[in-house]
Specification:
280 residues, alpha/beta, Helicase, Ruva Protein, domain 3, seven-stranded mixed beta sheet, binds S-adenosylmethionine
Length: 280
């Protein structure tokens, strides 16, 4: 195993700074620097880009991103115990790495970043899903980011790339594929992490499209698909009743049979329905 930088191995960093993993923060660390460099390579060409990293922990992925040539990495980390270890990385890469200590769900780091911006993260899955939905549903498009390279539980990764008719197809697939190209680029067994989680993981890479595949209002589309898939086995005329009492008319206008179930309806049809509802 070759060293990717002159910093100590991550096991040593963790021992020195006593970074015992906390379950409450979803801490499953990646300690193999060749693996973190491999994940960083999936983020695309980082030279000339600012990279926003959420949840750097002891800094394995951070070091991968810097070694892969990121112009600058800005990280948001909730656990202040990680700050001294991250400072060592900042010292080794002068002017290229900054950390904000805080909760990524509450901080808006945009003011600290210069385009082009890529985002990379290995996050606890609930935080990751929440951030992914936020990054995919701003009112205006294109967004502030060019690409997202994110670690998820394998099952969540499959939901992001799922196609109509499959069990995994739902809100995440529609929101992701509406405005981005999404693909699974790496699969990782539990043993890749310390401590190992119960399930396998996968890295998903999403490239922002210059414009959405079909026009629709993000808030309306988001609400329609969340409601439709909340009762995925029901016919749309019944699962979407709460959105409008005249939902059958809107479904007809969008060319969707009201007896259809959410998992049979494609992205284009959901966007057509969101446009019909927006007229109301
Ligand atoms: N990136 C590191 C790695 O790959 O080894 C750590 C990954 S660990 C799965 C998740 C990291 O996210 C932890 O360092 C944890 O403290 C941090 N974290 C958890 N919730 C967070 C939040 N809401 N905002 C920012 N960081 C968070």
């Amino acid at each position: 195993m070759s060293a990717i930088d002159s910093l100590p191995p991550l096991r040593e960093v963790i021992a020195t700074h006593q970074l015992s993993a906390r379950k409450s923060l979803g801490q499953n660390f990646l300690l193999d620097l060749n693996l973190t460099a491999k994940i960083a390579r999936q983020a695309g060409d980082l030279t000339g880009c600012d990279v926003l990293e959420i949840g750097p922990g002891p800094g394995g992925l951070t070091r991968g991103l810097l070694a892969e040539g990121a112009r600058r990495v800005l990280a948001v980390e909730k656990d202040s115990r990680c700050l001294p270890a991250l400072q060592e990385i900042a010292d080794a890469y002068p002017g290229r790495f900054d950390v904000i200590n805080g909760d990524a769900l509450e901080i808006d780091p945009l003011a600290y970043l210069t385009p082009p911006i890529r985002i990379a993260a290995n996050l606890p899955y609930n935080v990751g899903t929440e951030l992914l939905v936020r990054w995919l549903t701003p009112k205006e498009w294109p967004p502030f980011w060019q690409s997202l390279t994110l670690m998820f539980q394998r099952e969540v990764a499959e939901r992001i790339v799922a196609l109509p008719g499959s069990k995994a197809y739902g809100r995440l697939a529609i929101l992701a594929q509406w405005r981005a190209d999404a693909r699974i680029v790496l699969s990782l067994p539990p043993g890749a992490f310390t401590p190992p989680p119960k399930v396998s993981s996968a890295v998903v890479h999403l490239d922002a499209l210059p414009e959405p595949r079909f026009s629709a209002d993000a808030a309306i589309l988001s609400r329609v698909v969340a409601t439709a898939f909340n009762q995925r086995r029901k016919m749309l005329r019944s699962s979407l009743k709460g959105i409008s009492p005249a939902i059958e008319d809107y479904l007809h206008a969008a060319g969707i049979p009201p007896t259809e179930r959410a998992e049979q309806v494609g992205l284009e049809a959901f966007c057509a329905l969101a446009r019909e509802l927006a007229k109301a």
